[in-house]
Design goal:
Length: 414
């Protein structure tokens, strides 16, 4: 397996934990800041740990994509973001033309900060807008409001026009409590008016331990049912297609030339580096998650100076398992070639001939229902029907995988 050319860096700090969030984050309060605000000491300590972790990795080859996510990475100063990028350059190098993305919150930066981040090397921004409705934003626990989001969109659009940014993306959440189709379409129109060339649209998921989970147990979270959710997805695809967007993955839409190169790494089965608290790293085919608390992450990092984690050692390299390749590959617009993916995961041709027809047979019902298309050697979900009901297809994949002999499902062929 070739060495990774992509890196994810996790910055866990944020002003507050949103009511739907179960990420590995560390809320610091609304007045928190990178160098001198409340929480600045915690940020500085964490950055020392993060740079130490990056330095433990085997060097090279140069990175083609970098994604700094969170949390709210834009809580850090441009100088601190620059230090993270410099650490990656020292350890791996960053190739010319690399895509370097920073997640930003509308309540955490101004125009001068954006300009300084661009000078530090950021050339793509992922803006966590979530909604243009102030009442909805308050109900989500968000700190920003509609005016903030619109102002930030103007700055980003200007930076794109000026060439300081190559692209930017806007996040929205769909299937919110009591959301109607007319309300959602109004949100979508405002997103289009903001001129974001990339939209990431996520359906609300109620995760255990969140405020939303507590509200749901109390019967205070009237979510759209499955039919309503499918209708919202269908009208989303139709409207964005008319606006010139391609749905290149279940949750992601882009104008030509603006698809996220980094995100496609995850869905292609390629490896990547993951650094920081709670980050998942898969440089050599197997996923390894970092500890999710500051204390545990600090202890884990101390251990690396005695014995480096297997996730950093190339000697553990192995092909990504076929089920994993198919689960992520089916999220993409182009779908998957079953035989190519099987051979890439280490299967022999005889295993392909023997076992792949069983999966194809399980997917026949999805073909008949219009959820899947079989075009040449490729299988892909239809849009919007198949992507709306992708779990039906993925369940059949998991069931098929569980029927395989242990030596087939558990390791590459000899």
């Amino acid at each position: 397996m070739s060495a990774p050319r992509s890196a994810y860096v996790h910055i866990p700090f944020c002003h507050r934990r949103c009511f739907y969030c179960d990420f590995a984050v560390v809320p610091l309060g609304d007045r928190a800041g990178g160098e001198s605000g409340p929480g600045s000491t915690s940020i500085a300590t964490y950055l020392d740990q993060l740079l130490a972790e990056i330095a433990l990795s085997p060097p090279g080859p140069p990175l083609a994509t970098v994604y700094i996510g969170g949390g709210t990475p834009s809580l850090l100063t441009p100088a601190q973001i620059s230090a993270v990028l410099q650490s990656l350059r020292r350890q791996f190098g960053v190739q010319q033309g690399a895509e370097i993305t920073l997640e930003m919150d509308p309540a955490s930066f101004d125009r001068s900060t954006l300009q300084a981040l661009c000078r530090a090397g950021i050339n793509r921004v992922s803006l966590g807008g979530q909604s243009f409705d102030d009442t909805v934003l308050e109900s989500l626990g968000r700190r920003h409001r509609r005016h903030d989001l619109q102002q930030c969109a103007l700055w980003l659009d200007q930076a794109l026009f000026d060439g300081a940014l190559r692209s930017w993306s806007l996040d929205l959440i769909r299937n919110l409590p009591a959301q109607t189709q007319s309300h959602w379409m109004a949100q979508l129109e405002q997103a289009l008016a903001a001129k974001a060339p990339h939209l990431s649209i996520y359906d609300l998921a109620v995760e255990p331990g969140t405020v939303f989970a507590w509200r749901q147990r109390r019967g205070e979270l009237p979510l759209p049912d499955d039919d309503q959710a499918a209708a919202l997805m269908a009208c989303t695809s139709e409207r964005l297609e008319r606006a010139g967007f391609c749905r290149y993955e279940i949750s992601n839409y882009a104008r030509p030339g603006h698809a996220s190169r980094h995100n496609r790494v995850y869905w292609s089965g390629a490896g990547w580096w993951g650094f920081g608290l709670g980050a998942t790293s898969a440089p050599w085919g197997e996923r390894h998650a970092r500890p999710r608390t500051r204390e545990a992450y600090g202890e884990w990092l101390c251990q690396q100076h005695r014995q480096v984690d297997a996730s950093l050692e190339r000697t553990t390299a192995q092909a990504l398992p076929l089920d994993d390749r198919l689960l992520v590959g089916l999220r993409r617009h182009e779908g998957v070639n079953l035989q190519d993916q099987a051979l890439a995961s280490g299967w022999s041709q005889s295993w392909c001939d023997r076992f792949l027809p069983g999966l194809e047979q399980r997917w026949e019902a999805a073909l008949e229902q219009g959820l899947l298309l079989h075009e040449g050697a490729r299988w892909r979900l239809t849009d919007p029907e198949g992507m709306a009901l992708s779990n039906q297809v993925l369940v059949e994949l998991v069931c098929w995988w569980e029927t395989l002999p242990a030596d087939v499902a558990g390791s590459p062929s000899p």
